[in-house]
Amino acid sequence: MTEPRTFLSFDKSAETIKYNSRWMSGGVNSNFRLNISPTPLVFERGEGPYLYDVDGNKLIDYYLGMGPMILGHNPKPLADAVKAQIEHGILFAGQTAVEAEAARLVCEMVPSAERMRFGSSGSEVDQAALRVARAATGRQKVIKFEGHYHGWFDNVLWSTAPSLDAAGPYEAPNAVAGSKGQIGDAPVVLPWNDLELLTKRLAAGDIAAVIMEAAMCNAGAVHPAPGYLEGVREACTRYGTILIFDEVITGFRLAPGGAQERFGVTPDISTFGKAIANGFPVAAIAGRADLLDLFSTGGVVHGGTYNAQPIAMAATVATLKSLQPSLYAAIEKTGTRLMSGMREIFARAGVKASVEGFPQVFHIAFGLDEPARNYRDLARMNRQAYVAFTTALLRRGVRALERGAWFMSIEHTDDVIEKTLEAVEGATRQIRADGVL
């Protein structure tokens, strides 16, 4: 491979972020876009697997909007559907045929979806799921897991990325707040993939809900241990606890029916976002009819001015209709090739790294030589070295999340994978030469 003589620069993005900080705090509108190396980027357009920034750079994109863009950027069927819908109106504070069609598709595709409601964000529908669980059980306490993310609201932003010192003992983790200014009681926090600890805690009979990522794909891309999801399902049923799968990342990405379809375990309630509408602000809560009907007959409030907004629903229908078996087969092939190619490059360079997960979304952890089982394994990765790696990749035209996740789309074809692997080899060689690893 021949390295480019000059690498990409991002000076105009840096200048724009600084200029825009006069109006927007930090020049961004989400804390998860802050402190990116070498700078948060400013984009002009996206097409297929590529983003084009204000510096004139063309970047192969593995952020994919932090997960939603499974069809790639600006897919024509979705754009056509949105353009057609906008001719009929934007918002009615009433119902439309397109939202009913979208709801039908969700219920047909998702194993747990006997009934559903739309929302605008994953954070919102996770709150709705917890409210339903508390109403149905008459209990207040909730179990969540270290490293699992269920939105930025006070009652769930706990132990999403704690230091190991702050996390405390494995068997009884501390609940570590994720933000200054949080109020309210913390949930019960446990390590994930440990069925014995979970079952023991559920036996007290006071837990309204267990909420989890069915595959741990925010902090990493960790598979559930063999029999773990099945055991959790059985224990929740035995002790009268509602099982919630947060499929905001995995839904419509790991399979048409999400992680629950891929692993064959059906929760009581599921939440979705991201890939459901390929970049439009759409989320959903789905589950057992008796639970979801508490919204209409049980006094449980769920609202939102923009829920089922018609343009977003047109995007949802177009996206869900595009999620055919051939799409998943293609991404399985290209994602597997990219993961395998990276493993080979790291091995040749003598870099200890774990490349694990799924072809549709995987995770790289420098410093780990075997698959992580839970957050505490992931917390031992060499994050500083990985940021140096993603910075070196960016200067070679490949954009990857600094937290280690790589999202794939149908637009990441074989030639795009080949270009990516060339950049990976060059970036790996650079960080080795720089003494980062």
Q: In the CATH hierarchy, what is the architecture of the largest domain at level 2?
A: 3-Layer(aba) Sandwich
What is the CATH topology assignment of the largest domain? Aspartate Aminotransferase, domain 2
C-alpha end-to-end distance: 21 Å
Query: What order do the helices and strands follow?
Result: HEEEHHEHEHEHEHEHEEHHHHEEHHEEH
Which stretches of 5+ consecutive residues score pLDDT under 50? none
Can you put this structure into words, describing what you see?
The protein is an alpha/beta fold and 437 residues long. It has two domains: 11-70 and 325-433, Aspartate Aminotransferase, domain 1 (Alpha-Beta Complex), CATH 3.90.1150.10; 76-322, 3-Layer(aba) Sandwich (Aspartate Aminotransferase, domain 2). Helix content is 37%, strand content 15%. It is built from 15 helices and 14 strands. It has helices spanning 11-20, 76-86, 97-109, 122-137, 164-167, 195-202, 228-238, 258-263, 289-292, 294-297, 310-322, 325-349, 375-378, 383-394, 414-433, and strands spanning 43-47, 50-53, 58-61, 115-119, 141-145, 188-190, 207-212, 242-247, 269-272, 283-287, 353-358, 361-366, 398-399, 405-407. It has a seven-stranded mixed β-sheet with strand order 4-10-9-8-7-5-6, with helices on both faces. The chain has a four-stranded mixed β-sheet with strand order 1-2-3-13. A three-stranded antiparallel β-sheet has the order 11-12-14. Strand 11 (353-358) and strand 12 form a beta hairpin. The longest helix is centred in the C-terminal third of the chain and has 25 residues, at 325-349. The chain is globular and about 65 Å long. The two termini are 21 Å apart. The model has no long low-confidence stretch (mean pLDDT 97).
